[in-house]
Amino acid sequence: MSNADLELAVGAEPVARTQWQLFRRRFFKHRLAVVSLVILILITAACAFASRVAPYDISQLDLSLLGTVTGPSWKHWMGTTDSGVDQFSQILHAGQISLQIGFAVAVLSTLFGVAVGALSGFYGGALDKTISAFTDGFLVVPQLAILAVLLQYFGHSPRVIILVLAGLGWTYVARVSRGQVLSFKEKEFVEAARASGAGGPRIIVRHILPNMVGPIMVNLTLSVAGAVITESTLTFLGYGTQPPDTSWGLMLSQNEGAINDTAKLHLLLFPGLMLLIVVMCVNFLGDGLRDAFDPQATHSR
Amino acid sequence: MNNAVDTSLFAPSGPGGGNEAILEVRDLCVGFPSDDGILHAVDNVSFDLRANETMGIVGESGSGKSVTSMAILGLLPKYAKITGSVKFRGEEILGVRDKDLTAIRGAKIAMVFQDALTSLNPVFRVGDQIAEAVSVHRKCDRKELRERSLELLELVGIPNPVARLEQFPHEYSGGMRQRAMIAMAIANEPDILIADEPTTALDVTIQAQVLDVLERIRDRTSSSIMLITHDLGVVAGVADRVLVMYAGRQVEMATVDDLFYRGLHPYAQGLLASLPRLDRRGDSGQLSRIHGQPPSLVFLPPGCAFNPRCPHAQPGVCDQNVPLLREVERDHFSSCIRAEELVAKGSES
Q1: pLDDT tens digits for range B103-155
Q2: A229-261: pLDDT as tens digits
Q3: Cβ–Cβ of B106/A299 closer than 8 Å?
Q4: Cross-chain Cβ contact A199/B75 below 8 Å
Q5: Among the four residues A67, A116, A242, B1, which has the most C-beta atoms within 10 Å?
């Protein structure tokens, strides 16, 4: 066999790209994901620096407006609330807590869930049985009730809410990643890794987990959306964030009566719209990341 | 099943002999529990792999070829019942802890799998996967790893190795994938390379190239190769000695020439006769075949497992005791009870 026959024609050689370059290329092809990322960054930044970005100080009431709800205007983009506070400013401050809870819960529950799920799926045996029984147990209990009871017991500060939501959220991630590991464990490349002398931890970390980055990313973004919504739901029901803290859910909850009053409808519209935008952007971002992490998604040309 | 083979049979002798055995397999039995009883996937297999030789293991699907190799590397699932002994350079490696085996796997005994596409990790560049195979056993910095990967890709004859290092498995062709697998397997210069049907998924020209790579590597690194295949043509081309398996048992073990020209076991003879040949044609113009089906590994027929299909089977003789592999001629082993009779008969006609 001569190598000369096999030599590619000049110019036909594939261009070597770094992993990061490939990832970026594939991600930027996904327009919706890029737009979503930009929107998310803008919203997150605006909320994070709310005290500087917000046009009004929400602790300073505009006494001339006290008691009179005004609709959106040039002066107050999203109108004012019952207590005469500029709603746009309030939404930015409330977003701080909503987003903080969303991201923190997603990261915590994903990290813990993937770790537990991977160990459970890979090693099997008694460990797997115990963990599976535990995570499956959460399927049959009413989650919202448990969350409400736990929050009632432990308090309502954002930190407690994060820990309680993550404490329940990891079971779902664990179940998904356990299934993934179970199927990858049987793949021949894992057997090949074993045959080349790799031990259990090395196989999990270096051979199996990189294959799961796509699904994990999707799960991570879904749990950001899930956590934001769950927090809103709990708060709406009176078990979540409590004043003086404020969140989008709390704003909805405080203004639930507005549904019957067209003059106050903007008080429900804008917090709801923010939730919708964030959840949608996070989901599109997840799609884009999943495709970008899959080396076979688009072939380099 | 406990009719042990006389181990003195395997004293090195004959062509290819004189070399020390680096792998000694004795009385290897592998059983899998099933609903109907124990499935005897490998039944009393004993052989030596000598230094710097290529040994072919031939047999049809389910004859225990792959299970034998997996048992050697300790890769079988925990529920498999394994008995016997496998010694690598005189040291027992059967049943030792996984932790101790990892030092041998890849470094001393490496394996090339059949389906290269599924055996390569789809999310890593081929270069990184080869580097990973190296770094399992050695601490190296990135630059060293890259150089070593490049050298290995060159060694297995991949064109444009620099560019190919950066590509993913799905950008490789079938033959290149298999070569990349071989590159990973030889990354730590193992003493033994177990190739489990390395050419089955490839077309014939690529097959020849891959076999060529295997031979070149054996000569270069003076390693031994255990070549598992069901392709007699492949065996004839590269193997020094051949072990023929049927229903988990050894039926014949001989040098390639002895097997092809003077096969002693009716099963091996039947296999060879069933190969299409350009220079010879049956009267009917049809290929000859072995009648019947391989037996269930749970319910093996009494006596010789091949006797229900054997044209030379004698009731009352072949269906009594499980025949043992024995040296019928020098360095030529057969498990057929009537081997001598058949040789005599063959030379008459």
Answers
A1: 888 889 999 888 877 888 888 889 989 998 888 888 888 888 888 999 888 88
A2: 888 888 888 887 777 778 888 888 777 777 777
A3: no
A4: no
A5: A116
Q: Where are the domains of chain A?
A: 100-280
Of B119, B168, B170, the CB nearest to A188: B119
Of B112, B123, B136, B149, which to mutate for an interface test with A (greatest number of A Cβ within 10 Å)? B123
- Tokens for B43? 């039944």
pLDDT at B242 over 90: yes
Give the model's pLDDT for residue A63: 63
8 Å CB contact of A197 and B124: no
Q: Model ipTM?
A: 0.70
Which residue from A minimizes the CA distance to B134?
A: A196
| pLDDT band, very low/low/confident/very high, at A8 (cuts 50, 70, 90) | very low
Please report which helix (H) or strand (E) contains residue B24, including its range.
strand B21-34
Q: What is the mean pLDDT of chain B?
A: 84
| Least confident among A21-30, A40-49, B263-272, B325-334 | A21-30
- Asked whether the predicted pLDDT for residue B349 surpasses 70, the reply is no
Shortest Cα distance from B282 to chain A (angstroms)?
Answer: 36
Q: Does A16 touch chain B (CB under 8 A)?
A: yes
CA separation for the pair B262, A241 (Å, rounded): 87
B171 neighbourhood in chain A, CB within 8 Å: 14, 299
Contacts of A261 (CB under 8 A, 6+ apart): none
Q: Tell me the fold of A100-280.
A: MetI-like fold (1.10.3720)
Phi-psi region of A11 (alpha: psi -120 to 50; beta: other; left: phi over 0): left
Widest CA span in chain A: 91
Q: Is B105 on the interface with A (CB under 8 A)?
A: yes
Burial grade of B42 (CB within 10 A; 0-12, 13-18, 19 or more): buried
Q: How far apart are CA B338 and CA B349, in angstroms?
A: 17
Beta-bridge partners for B225: B54, B193
Are the beta carbons of B235 and B65 closer than 8 angstroms?
Answer: no
Q: Is A210 on the interface with B (CB under 8 A)?
A: yes
* pLDDT per residue as tens digits for the range A271-281: 888 889 998 99
